[in-house]
Amino acid sequence: xxxxxxxxxxxxxxxxxxxxxxxxxxxxxxxxxxxxxxxxxxxxxxxxxxxxxxxxxxxxxxxxxxxxxxxxxxxxxxxxxxxxxxxxxxxxxxxxxxxxxxxxxxxxxxxxxxxxxxxxxxxxxxxxxxxxxxxxxxxxxxxxxxxxxxxxxxxxxxxxxxxxxxxxxxxxxxxxxxxxxxxxxxxxxxxxxxxxxxxxxxxxxxxxxxxxxxxxxxxxxxxxxxxxxxxxxxxxxxxxxxxxxxxxxxxxxxxxxxxxxxxxxxxxxxxxxxxxxxxxxxxxxxxxxxxxxxxxxxxxxxxxxxxxxxxxxxxxxxxxxxxxxxxxxxxxxxxxxxxxxxxxxxxxxxxxxxxxxxxxxxxxxxxxxxxxxxxxxxxxxxxxxxxxxxxxxxxxxxxxxxxxxxxxxxxxxxxxxxxxxxxxxxxxxxxx
Length: 432
Ligand code: HAM
What we know:
The protein is an alpha+beta fold. Helix content is 38%, strand content 20%. Residues 94-96, 125, 127, 133-134, 137, 139, 141, 143, 271-272, 292-297, 299, 315-319, 321-322 line the site of histidyl-adenosine monophosphate.
């Protein structure tokens, strides 16, 4: 018996490992995932959002157009491949562009607006893996279409904030900024270019490049020598047009009314091209780009950009791996539910058939059951304990001849006797 178990542990050489930047979500991690996923569903539904799931891959063009060809994501992080039919497809690097595509394709723009959607989906980015940054990761996100007023910006921020605080993550910071819209941003970018143009010799190589093709990103450079220059740079909120200014003030009032503390951060510009006006992030009070839990903002031009009618939009994406890492860092436990499952143990060849039938009968009457492993009784009971079973039924030769089985409560360690009928009544869940 013991021998059998230990001889299973053979030495061997791994031929395959999970690809770099990916992890397996093992059964012992499931309680965390169940917790965050059910919380995401509960909170979203409470705010009136409906779940949407889009395919894992899309036409490459959707992300080139939607996310922007000068973004890091599209320039160097997509998993793009040609399928056997010759189409270029890309594994979803983010959730917003696909949801916009689906909104249009499924005529949701004809529904009463706004349309409120949420998703829990895997994403893929070819990034340099490190703690908090993976090549395959999961996002909880929401997107709202067809409402331009700032109450809905505040609403999506509130969803994210409430989700995190109900999980017990209270020590978080919300940062906000407005990057203007297509009316006022060109003027602001002009100011930024002029300011940086006069300081070309003092900035890093990346920033010289950004000055050319993505000037907003100059503001979130992490190079030391660029920091004093960023500190003095013109800020977008000082260059908003009247409409953007009133949106920005409206947003701050709503957030204040809801009672969420925030900081305005002039450097917050986000890494995707589709944003206009509101951008925001929620992060724990530790430094570093990979600590940001939630990133989001308004994207009023995106639906039009991919061929639809002019439609305002706003949403966020939140990395679930990062949420779970923060739960663990804060020593917040996810409840491992004890399973009320029966292990049907057996002694002898005849008994294994009876065990198999009984397990099936228990399941058919609404209970949970599995057959004990084909080893000795003690080992079967150890197995039952290791899978967290609540009960064991024991079937041996005597039990077969009398039709009365042993029923052991593994949590209380007491044992009684029961017929098949009694067992099925005991474990079966009455439908009501
Ligand atoms: P994002 O800032 O690229 O925005 O991602 C949002 C969040 O996803 C990040 O704050 C982080 O928690 C998580 N995340 C991103 N990349 C990784 C990674 N490599 N490993 C682990 N977690 C990661 C977006 O994706 C936008 N679609 C958000 C949005 C929705 N904006 C409007 N609507």
